Amino acid sequence: MKPGIHNFSEIGKLNKVLLHRPGLELEALTPSTLERLLFDDIPFLRVAQEEHDRFAQVLRENGVEVIYYVDETAKALSDEKIKEQFIKEFIRLSGISAQGTKEKLFQFLVKLEPKELVTKLIAGIKRDEISDGKVAGLMDLVKNDYPFVSDPMPNLYFTRDPGACLGEGINIHHMHTPARRRESLLLKYMYKYNPDFAVEGNQQWYDVYDDYSIEGGDVLVLSKEVVAVGLSERTTAAGIENLARNLLAKSDFKKVLAFDIPKTRAFMHLDTVFTMVDYDKFTIHPEIEGPLGVYAITMGKDGELKFESAHNTLEKTLAKELHIPSVELIRCGGGELLASQREQWNDGSNTLCIAPGTVVTYERNYVSNDLLDKKGIKVLAIPSSELSRGRGGPRCMSCPVNREDI
């Protein structure tokens, strides 16, 4: 295994993956905070942790090294000056405007050891934890009905979105919603200051402070030459162009394919409707096949981006880009309307491929899982009654750091 970040496919044997085990941040979810924190329901934490532990166990049983957000970010903050810099940057990204509150929050956080600090930032900081009984400004009075001075990050167990490892580099994403933007900062410090995560020669293709949003669920590495990116509810056309400009100019990738998918909650990211499971097989939600548009972005000899529409069917476009005779699309729910809609809602198309023809899925999507099995795909199904309430599947819950080449 090559050290550091190395990822040139969706299906090469997975060597190392970055996860986040759900924590107390899920217990900040209430009916009144669901919309603010981007959830539709409230998972039961203990069971969600048990299900996530089973997910990690399945990965380890199949030869995957599992690393965790808290541990890897804490390693990056062992130097006191870097820790202080990180806290200041985190507070800025939190959108706290009251100077007195910012100062109290900094003094509270700087005393914590790195692992305790990262855990606390993810879980959220309640107003009464930093209160000294004094009113530092008008904002202290205006917002005192909301319990958190720094919001929790319950979406972090979907580690796919804050960043994406592409080739021997990484995207640190500008997330679409303020509720998730701070997650990317943890990954940025991990990349910059943790030598166990990234090594010399690993590059950065996108940054949390770039102008336009892009999220990791929309980014698929189809081959050593081609990256697919979903133009979705949370990834913008301008963000895709920025990524393409950096990636095509500074790496060995030759093309970015933009997949224009419906801008709805049910089709949040490209990987909720489309994933690669073998050399020539993809899962797909049948409802996107009609409206799906595909556009190719390449770099001209003059250093300017070139854009064109892909006029073939999706199958022919994929076969052409992968240099294979044909591809097979495996339809979520077997194409049956009710099954496909139900299992799509529970991420039936969101598979994590850990080796060619071997995928991790949610066991509740039994129609899709049975179809994958009949197509010769080895299915490793995990329990998901609580994890699925966050609207993300095994691919969403994983950030592959290192894969073997295919």
Topology:
Elements: E1 14-19, H1 45-61, E2 65-68, H2 69-76, H3 80-93, H4 99-110, H5 114-123, E3 125-126, H6 127-130, H7 138-142, E4 148-150, E5 163-166, E6 169-172, H8 178-193, E7 203-206, E8 219-221, E9 226-231, H9 237-250, E10 255-260, E11 274-278, E12 281-284, E13 293-299, E14 305-309, H10 314-322, E15 328-331, H11 337-345, E16 352-355, E17 358-362, H12 366-374, E18 378-382, E19 399-403
Parallel strand pairs: 1-2, 6-7, 9-10, 12-15, 17-18
Antiparallel strand pairs: 1-19, 3-4, 5-6, 8-9, 10-13, 11-12, 13-14, 16-17
Your description of this structure?
- This protein has 406 residues and is α/β, with parallel strands linked by helices.
- The protein is built from 12 helices and 19 strands.
- It has helices spanning 45-61, 69-76, 80-93, 99-110, 114-123, 127-130, 138-142, 178-193, 237-250, 314-322, 337-345, 366-374, and strands spanning 14-19, 65-68, 125-126, 148-150, 163-166, 169-172, 203-206, 219-221, 226-231, 255-260, 274-278, 281-284, 293-299, 305-309, 328-331, 352-355, 358-362, 378-382, 399-403.
- β11 (274-278) and β12 form a beta hairpin.
- The protein starts with 13 loop residues before the first strand and ends with a strand.
